[in-house]
Amino acid sequence: MFKKPKEPARNLTGRVSLGRGYSLMDWLRLAGSGKDLSGTGGKYKDVTYEELKKHNKEEDCWMAVHGVVFNITPYIRYHPGGVEEIMRGAGADGTKLFDQNHAWVNASNMLKACIVGRLAYSPSSQTLSIPALATPNANIQHKSLANISYTWKDATDAVIVKISNLPDDMTSRNMVAHLKDNHILFIYLFQEPDVCILELALYCLIDSFKISELMNSISLKLIKRDPQSWKTLGNDLRNGFDLIAMSNFDRPVFPCRLVAKTKVTHDSDQYICALPKNLHLAPPVGHHLFISVESEDLVLHRSYTPIPILDKFSSSSFNNHLVFMIKVYREGIVSSAISQKSIGDVLDISPMGGNLTSRKYLNAINILLIAAGTGITPMLGILDDVLFKNFLDIRQIKLIFFNKTEKDILYRKQLEEFQEQKKEYFNIFHVLSSPDDSWSGLSGRISLPLIKKISGSIFCEEDDFIAICGPQGFNKLASEIFTELTGQSSSFTLFQG
Fold first, then answer.
1. Contact 74/114 with Cβ under 8 angstroms?
2. Residue 54 near residue 91 (C-beta atoms within 8 A)
3. On the CB side of 200, how many CA atoms lie within 13 Å of its CA?
């Protein structure tokens, strides 16, 4: 056994002052020395919870992180948080504690020499079907999410994980799937204002995964690195789907590399970001993601709605990418920081918010879209869906697009090309609040007479779809107009920025 380490001294700020010879570089030298730090003679073994609990002292300390058991005894003196902090996970599964403080650290890499083996699958959970959490958070609104469950089956070259009992409106676009370090699978299912989370420490390494879906179910085909038979799926770190309110959800952050940046207008750019390997993130139309930046030791974030690639000839070249149109505001910390990014830089992106379901507009005969400025972004996804992906020749679609001047009109060329291609079904109405003398189109601000003049009777039928998106003041005024026209505030979809 290793000798019991001494507690490092703390400085006046309360932070641990590591002694000489106990820096990160000193640890890396020790870890790479070839010494048997795990105490197992280099042979991995399965560790039960009962055995893990026995190693809970400073001179004999094991901890499990993401399904891997480490003998952290030799590392304790190197831990920058001190002995007391790391001992909170002694003889236990320290995954949540680790993720709270070191989610960005690859434990299996830094503590590779300390690996004892895999945390054995609990006998009580070795079943083919694991139900969702039985007592969801009291703030949960979508009680149907509590019925979600999963099963798995082994195949020669892959393992199939099937997620079942999904709500009717939930598809793979409501899901984020992330394979971390080739053996930790995170699955997030979003239905605002709630999220279901599944975390699996897989039995063996996985190279990649593929997604398919049927009615009320999604399947993930996990491609094995080695075609061996699996005894179990692995360790279920949350004991089934954990159902929580988004307000209590610590959103994961994914580093996405910027691969293209083009000017859209004088103050707006388009960004194309490549997703990291083994990440599925393709939010539903009209849903937003969060981009975060650091500013003066603070992490700030803002929501942005991904858009389709409007150049159809380029679409096939940008699978597994996200596209954003971002306007730079004079006092906007986040947008200004993003505008400084160059090709090859990273944007930190987190999922996901929004409550639009595609059936709302795909089932509509008349569609009226009302956008102001950057409020065009969710409308672009709807237009791409109804004009090209799910086109019906009985639909009539109108877009009323409000801007200050002609030079502020985003994607004008592409939108007018759409109108030319589908001129029997799609009409654009540009409205400028401060046009110059050469402007011959509509001018003014959103008003009841203007809406009536353009939209006609679109808002009178139950199967019409109306969507509004713009700045806060614009949204408020537009909401009042359509509430007056229809007699109810639930008759239209309002995108909040």
1. yes
2. yes
3. 28
Cβ atoms within 10 Å, residue 80:
17
CA gap 248, 477 in Å, rounded: 32
**Terminal CA-to-CA distance of the chain, rounded, Å?**
58
Contact 78, 95 (CB under 8 A): no
Burial status of residue 265 (CB atoms within 10 A of its CB: 0-12, 13-18, 19 or more): middle
* Cα three-residue angle 286-136-86, rounded to 5 degrees: 95
The closest of 67, 358, 339, 11 to 203, measured between CA atoms, is: 67
Count of CB atoms situated within 10 Å of the CB of 127: 9
Summarize the chain as % helix, strand, coil (round to 5): 25, 35, 40
DSSP 181-195: TTTEEEEEEEETTEE
**pLDDT digits over 434-486, tens only?**
999 999 999 999 999 998 888 876 555 667 899 999 998 999 999 998 888 87
Q: Over the chain, what is the mean pLDDT?
A: 84
Q: What is the DSSP string of 221-267?
A: EEEESS-PPPSS-EEETTSSPEEEEGGG-----EEEEEEEEEEEETT
Angle at which helices 448-455 and 472-486 cross, to 10°: 70
Do 164 and 150 form a contact (C-beta atoms < 8 A)?
yes
Residue 113 near residue 37 (C-beta atoms within 8 A): yes
CA 432 to CA 174: how far, in whole Å? 36
| Beta-strand pair 60-65/92-93 | parallel
C-alpha distances in Å from residue 63, one per residue of 1, 49, 86, 91, 205: 16, 10, 9, 5, 21
Q: What is the pLDDT of residues 342-398, one digit of tens each?
A: 999 999 999 989 989 988 898 888 899 999 999 999 999 999 999 988 888 778 899
DSSP classification of residue 156: S
Residue pair 149/131 in contact (Cβ under 8 Å)? The answer is yes
SS3 letters across 165-182: CCCCCCCHHHEEEEEECC
Q: How many CB atoms lie within 10 A of CB 447?
A: 13
